[in-house]
Amino acid sequence: MKSMKCITTCLAVLLLASTAGSQIWIQGNGPCGFRVPAITSNDAGYVFAANIHTHGVYRCSGSEINWQLHSNGIIAYQGITSLVTNNDGDVFMSKWGGGIFRSIDNGETWESIIDGLTNYIVRSLAVNDSGILFAGTEGGGVFRSADNGENWEQINTGLTDLRIPALIAKDNEFVFAGTQSDGVFRYSEAGNSWTPVSSGLSFLEIKTIGCNNIGDIFVTGSHGVNNIYRSSDNGDSWQLKNNGLSTGSVSSLAIDSNDNIFAGKSYNGIYYSSDNGENWNKKDSGLTILEVLSLHVDGSGDVFAGTAGGVFYSSDGGDSWQHSSEGMINTEVSSFIILDSANIIAGTNSSGVFHSADGGINWEQRNNGLTNSSGNSIIRDMILNDVGDLFAGTIDGLFISTDTAKSWNQVYNGIASRLAVLAMNDDGIMFAGCSGDGVFRSIDNGLNWVEVNNGLTDMTFEAMATAGDSTVFAGSYYAGVFRSMDNGDSWIAVNNGLTDDNIKAIAVKEDTIIFAGCNRNGIFRSVNNGDSWELIFEYSIDYEWPTFFIDDSGKIFIGVGTEGVFMSTDNGNSWSQISNISLRYNAVIAMAKNYNNILLAGTDGQGVYYWQCDDDDNDIICEYDDNCPFTYNPDQEDYDEDGVGDSCDACNNFAITLNPVEDTLTVKFDTTHWFFPTISDQDDDLHTITYTYNPHYGEDTIEIVGDTLYLYAPDTSISVDVMVEVEDACNLASQSFTWIVYVCGDANGDGAINVGDAVYLINYVFKGGPASEPLESGDANCDEAVNVGDAVYLINYVFKGGPSPCCP
């Protein structure tokens, strides 16, 4: 079964709508992609991809048009490390610190299977043709299960290193384990022990293991080892097979049914061998994310590559690749560039650059030319110069696009790598902050750069902003804020009042008010060009990562880690939270506002969220949710709960309250009863009491004296609904109840006392018939019980002139 329907671009129509109350953040349709450490498939045609950010599993099939998250039952421990399926189609998933989970219904539900597992840091899984499962752990060695994961036993005899990052099962005969530092071990089911088989290997730190259909075993090493070894004798000897491979370690292997081998490189795409590893050729046309984390070939021969920016797919043996991450909205969006009312560029920390042509709702990837050692996936910051050129700062340097991100070229002239932040002043002078290399400056629209580090005592910068024509502020990693008043020619530290030297964000308002966001202690403000600082926003927990945005109206927005987004309309003196985004463990790390006044929040693992509403009174409450839409009242207090906020309620906000009353008021005929409303009307004692008119009882049966309602029960059986209303100029309160009047001895409630009532009681007592309604009406002899004695009492009354029914 082909999985072609999994392959779509990240484009869909998203309607902006509000949710209940003021929860008005909506997740957009992208950017799509995340780090995918493991992929597998089963014979039912489903492909499963592990998601690091949600700690869950996405599923795609030939009947679906996109990936969907299937995490029911998965406990959110650390990230997923491995996925495998057995011959029955069951899916097994291991987690770092979370043990092992199993799904027997194609990923719809998951259950933890850890009975006997004494180490929950599971790094690798394998299953042989008989369905026997093997789990490699970090420090606990290997565990084995012969009953589909229900029970596990430790099998470490012969192992000298209990850290197992790689496992592969060869038929039912052998299992091969790659260790962290002692090479490869072979396990024999017959011998129930491990044998070291690393003779000929040039490394002993194993990254991954593969096995082809003729039984050859392939291993790769970690941490920059550029070698693939093959063994044709079950590991007794190994031969180097890396002809044609580029530098860099191989992170993953996959072998199809024809023994064609696919090798994923950590930062250099995918290589292919059709001659059992003798020769390798690069096969990554269309693969725009070159950091390959996992590879898998499904039963139809389709190849899936899990990368740092989502899943790619090939249906032609790797000759061409398509981005296949629709539905996987789990990117880390680090920066925005607003081009016009429709076009927006977003930089991500895992999937490169994306473009939106509809104001930020739908996105498509634009990474053409972003080729570098990091796999073109990590964008730290972006900037647009005065002539319309786009610049993207990455961990491997600076890239420029002159065609709205359709293509990119690297800038080499004087700029360092490991860029973290970009800024530009009113004169078009550009600045770049780097991790380890300080600050660089360009005066020719980013074409040439020079180092400007005079006075800096820290060379790592993650925040920068300009003020006026020549002032620049730079936030460093461990030395606080630096200021230059000559466009970077010289710098001085300006940290008076700062209590945290790790600066994550800087913003400048109207060239006079400077804001600095620290890693731990909070947000600081300076109104004297950085000479002194004061704390204006304190985090509730340590290690929040702030980001700033100031819109054209002067509103200041801060994204404060997992605490959400806050806004200030008074230069930071007070802050109000904008309906906290439901981001689980993900933080807001970038913000912008498009030309349609929609606030965009880039998150650390859930793409882009949107916030839009009419808010004429500037209190961060949308008009349709605001109880005073034209009066500033962010607290939304409403004492009388009439839907009108106290700030604009003309009735002083005192409510009329009525005492509780039972749903039914049952009274005896020819008696008087009363209902006292216990009226509390603090704003106005001039209230009126009314009741609903009902022809069954007539106006002469109810009388209002003061605040008391008197009810004169007639001498007949009735059941009527009474509504009492108390009203003044501003408020109205009401209560309703059923008023039941009963006549003694009228057991059947027909308004007359006769032999029919005695028959009714006999039927109730001896044949299970209905009871009197109310029951008191059947207690004719007043003995507080309804039985045959009451029937006899009524017969005596009707036929023999006995005493009248009395009732309690």
Write out the strand line-up for the largest beta sheet, numbering strands in chain order. 1-56-55-54
How far from one another are the termini?
Answer: 81 Å
Shape: flat
How would you state the average pLDDT, rounded? Answer: 85
**Major β-sheet annotation:** 4 strands, antiparallel
Number of strands: 65
Structural class: mainly beta
> What is the alpha-carbon Rg in Å?
38 Å
Helix count, DSSP H or I runs of 4 or more residues: 2
List low-pLDDT spans: 1-23
The percent of residues in helical segments reads under 10%
Q: What amount of the residues lies in strands?
A: 35-45%
List keywords for this structure.
2 helices; four-stranded antiparallel β-sheet; 65 strands; 808 residues; disordered N terminus; single chain; mainly beta
